[in-house]
Amino acid sequence: MVDEQALLERALDTGFANAALIDTGDITFVPTFRPLCQENLCGKYGVNYACPPDCGTVEEMRAQVLHWPRALVMQTMWDIDDPLDEQQTKPAKGEHNRLTRQLIDWAGAPGLMIGASGCSLCSPCSITKGKPCRFPELRYSCMSAYCIFVKELAERCAMDYDCGPGVVAFFSMYCFGGGQ
Predict the structure, then answer these.
(1) Helix boundaries (H) for the chain
(2) Would you put residue 177 in left (φ > 0), alpha (ψ -120 to 50) or beta?
(3) Which pTM value belongs to this model?
(4) Which residues does 44 contact at the CB level (< 8 Å), separation at least 6?
């Protein structure tokens, strides 16, 4: 069983700017967000097991989250002039996801990681070679693949979504089995 207070404290000690605990039933899912993935702004649509269309349907993704009653929402903030500049955002997202995995490993409890971007454990993803995922137990999808309304989630967790000019916030979640 996860000690929620210790998890929250550890998240902040690990380097997250903010962290908050919520019930997964309080998360808003917006299925109409899924077509945004098809625009492929991240370049992972159809070439990553953790991204649409290969990650699962909107309903399957929602069920994965709701399987776990609790979630820790984590936020990092980065000095980035242009949020569309991948040379700036990619390393920041990578570090954010590394911190998320580090925290989940520390917790040592089963759960679900939802990242700040699609899985980047392998480059390229083995789907591009027609091979199975090499790390299915570590693979993670992003908030967008789950159709999570991140702006509302941030507000619910008392976190800024829009941090102003020159600052970009990234979010991730660790969904788990409940607190003490």
Answers:
(1) 4-14, 34-38, 58-66, 86-107, 150-156
(2) alpha
(3) 0.94
(4) 50, 51, 117, 118, 125
